[in-house]
Design goal:
By secondary structure, this protein is of the alpha+beta class. Among the domains are: 5-27 and 86-171, Ku70, Chain: A, Domain 2, CATH 2.40.290; 187-263, no CATH class. Helices cover 23% and strands 27% of the residues. It contains six helices and nine strands. It has a seven-stranded mixed barrel. It has a two-stranded antiparallel sheet with strand order 3-4. Strand 3 (65-70) and strand 4 form a beta hairpin. The protein is extended. The two termini are 20 Å apart.
Length: 266
């Protein structure tokens, strides 16, 4: 099955316009979801909203959206007011600048789409793809969809363009908020750690070697239920509480390296 078309857009920079189609880069059907059922009869449950003041069930036509600006205090907005605040969709990916691709922190990545040439845009598409590849740069800009304005990075990958929807800077927390205790890195330990890294290092990225074992296990359990089989739960392993010296742990790891085929699961 080919990639699913999500919509169409135009990459715009200077006087150049490149019509493109957006394709989903991931498979949402891979997610496993469960429905809530009534345990007594097996019927599916329906969600309802209760008023925290009087406990009554509130129908949707009596709901209004509000923003809590202070504890217990809200300003409310009608659907028309919220609609007026929406960003108007232009179907245009407006490029503002071209940045070095290796300078874009991966923490900004939110969602990825493939871009393919739309009718009449094949030549401009290939030109932009090659120009970005040879310069090592990516196109940074914004686009509007579904009432929102997104930060977007367009970059080449294996001969095609991909658009990465990025977080805005104020959406990310700085790394320096992570508490770190003071401590020194001992040279001998660093040498062993680097040796351990090199021992398991590879020159290419191969995510296909790994699979989601939890998803596989859940799907197998679902099929067992469908087939009317009993599910046998394996006993949980006792937690490992033994604490060993860091240097000894590094030496032991180097002495007993993980085999390459043990890390491959698919």
């Amino acid at each position: 099955m080919g990639a699913r078309v999500m919509g169409s857009a135009t990459i715009s920079f200077g006087l150049v316009s490149v019509p493109v189609k957006l394709y989903s880069a991931s498979e949402s059907s891979a997610n496993i979801s469960f429905n809530l059922l009534h345990k007594a009869c097996g019927s599916r449950l329906k969600q309802q909203y209760l008023c925290t003041n009087d406990g009554e069930i509130v129908p949707r036509d009596q709901m209004v959206k509000g923003y809590e600006f202070a504890k217990g205090q809200y300003v409310t907005f009608s659907p028309e007011e919220l609609k007026a605040l929406d960003e108007k969709a232009t179907n245009s990916i407006d490029i503002a600048e071209f940045v070095p691709l290796d300078k874009v922190e991966r923490t900004y990545l939110h969602k990825t789409y493939y871009l393919g040439p739309d009718k009449g845009g094949e030549r401009a598409y290939r030109l932009l793809t090659e120009a970005l590849r040879e310069t090592g740069r990516a196109a940074l800009g914004q686009y509007a969809a579904r009432g929102n304005q997104y930060l977007a990075l367009v970059r080449p990958l294996d001969g095609v363009l991909i658009m990465e929807q990025l977080h805005y800077a104020d959406e990310l927390r700085p790394a320096n908020e992570v508490p770190l205790e003071a401590g020194d890195v001992k040279e001998a330990e660093l040498t062993l750690a680097k040796q351990l890294i090199e021992q398991s290092a590879t020159e290419e990225f191969h995510p296909e070697r790994y699979k989601d074992e939890v998803r596989t296990r859940v799907l197998e359990a679902i099929q067992q239920k469908v087939d009317g089989e009993e599910i046998v739960t394996e006993p949980a392993e006792a937690p490992q509480t033994k604490i060993i010296d860091l240097m000894e742990a590094l030496k032991a790891s180097l002495a007993d390296p993980p085999k390459q085929d043990q890390r491959k699961t698919g």
